Structure formats: structure tokens, C-alpha cells
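User: I'll paste a sequence; please echo it back and then give the predicted structure.

Assistant: Echoing your sequence first, then the prediction.
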Amino acid sequence: MTLLLSVFEQGMIYSIMALGIYITYKILDFPDLTVDGSFPMGAAIAAAMISRDMNPVLALLTACVAGAAAGICTGVIHVKFKVRDLLAGIIMMTALYTVHLCIAGKANLPIYGKSTIFENGPVDALFAGSLRPFKTVVIIFLVTMILKYLLDWYLSTKSGFILRAVGDNDTIVTSMGVDKGTVKIVGLAISNALVTMSGCLFAQQQRFYDASMGPGTMVIGLASVIIGMSLLRKVSFIRLTSSVVIGSIIYKGCVAVAIKLGMPSAFLKLITAVLFLAILIVSMERSAKAKPAAQSAGGNGSGNPDGDSDAKVVE
């Protein structure tokens, strides 16, 4: 039971980060490596504020604003200074390493014994007795669902439709008189706000910040997005954002099983890389098989007029 709860807890925390990567990777087609810096920045903000006995909810909101600012900086570097998307992300990722170290004040900052969003008087009173082991997973679930549905709502607005259009065909957006660069900056701001909040929750759940939290965040998020969208692509009643959340839980479950079977914890990054490679290979093989079938169906006039575009269709 402890292992299962841990998988759900961390899976849902990372799913918030994966939702951010879903925006840049699937909607904007922007390989944003900023997330490897914004995730630990959220953890640093949480640890720095909570260690000073500040409100953990305020830490979450502060992390959201800081993450949005980091995304805006990445967008400005790319859009205004004409730096390639990948390089813009690398520049911000490198800069944010110094930023989150300065915020925390040191490379490792524990917050044991401090009040967090999961450990405080009202929460302990609400989840007393036999409910105590489930308090963390319930709170994470509520936060994840709130953020997921807020993202769903935003993507259904006019601004959200324009954001999706930029990823599909930015020429159409330009012809509508909308600055595609500004739309990209907004998308990057939302993405990194989600990633930073995920890092903030992770630090509060683990009760520490560490400077090494960042590397590999992008890979975990991409793996979650690809797993969810590959496994659930034909399940029409599940939104794509829900698929991302489920994919993150499945991913963390696979990692937990590998460690449970005897893999040393020091091999965690290797497990992540191998698992991600396997997911990519399977996903590419499925896409390669699906394309000829879709073209054949389209040639006969009986196919889906939208084609095989799961990466661009947003519920």
C-alpha cells in the first residue's frame, strides 16, 4: 500500500509538470529545456519560504509567478532576440541553476518539522486516525485536478484556441492579425508556471530541496506525455490532458517496479533514459504503421478528414 500511495503521489506531482511540457511539446512544438531549471526553482522557493515559517500556499503561488516569469524570459530570448528555441531553453536552464541556488542559499535545504501544504494543523485534524496515510495523495489529487481543469478551460477560450493554432499553422494566426510571438510567450509562461508549481509541491512532499533535482525533468515529462497519449489515443472520452496525468502515474509506476525488483536507486536516471528510449521506439513504430493506413483510407475517401494528428488535436 505504501508503494502504491507513493506512485500516485509522485505520479500526480510530476503530471502537473507534464501538463506544462504538453503545452510546449505537443501544442507549440517548442523543445523547451527551461523546465530543467524551473522545476528545481519551484522546489527552492518552497524550501526557502517554508524554512522561514511562511505560508506553504503562498509558496505555491510565488512559485507559479516565478515560473511564469522564467517562461516569459525564454519566450523573449526566442521571439525578440531571434535565438533558436532549443538554445533559448538551454540559456534559461543554465541561468536558472544560479537563480535557484541563490533562492535556497545552499545546494541542499531540508524543511523537516515545518508546516507544509500536506502537514499542518487543519489538514492533520481533517485526516485523523485511519485517514492519515491518505492525506498527501488526496491533497495532491485535488491540486492536480484543479490545475488540469483550469488548463482545460483556458484551452477552450479564444486565447487557448489561438495558442493551439500557433502550433498547427502559425501563418493562419499571423493572417488573423495576431502576433504569433506574443502567443508563444504566453504559452511558455503557462507551461513553466505549471512546472514550477510541480517543483514546489515536490519539495513540500519530499521535505527538502536539492540542486540536483533539475536534470532529467524534461525527459520525465516527455515520457509521461508520450505514454499517456500513445496508450489512450483511441479512448475518445478521455481528454488529452487526462491522458497526460495517467501517463505520468504509469511512468512512475514503471520506475517504482524496476526499483522494487532490485535495481539500485543510483540507477534511477539510467532507468529513466532506457524507459524513455523504449517509449520513443514503440511510439515511432506505431506512427510509421498508422501513416500508410491513414493515407490509404484517405485515398479511398473513407478516412478521417483530419488525418493522424493526435499531436495537434486538443480536447
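Residues 2-212 form one domain. Residues 302-315 have pLDDT under 50 and may be disordered.
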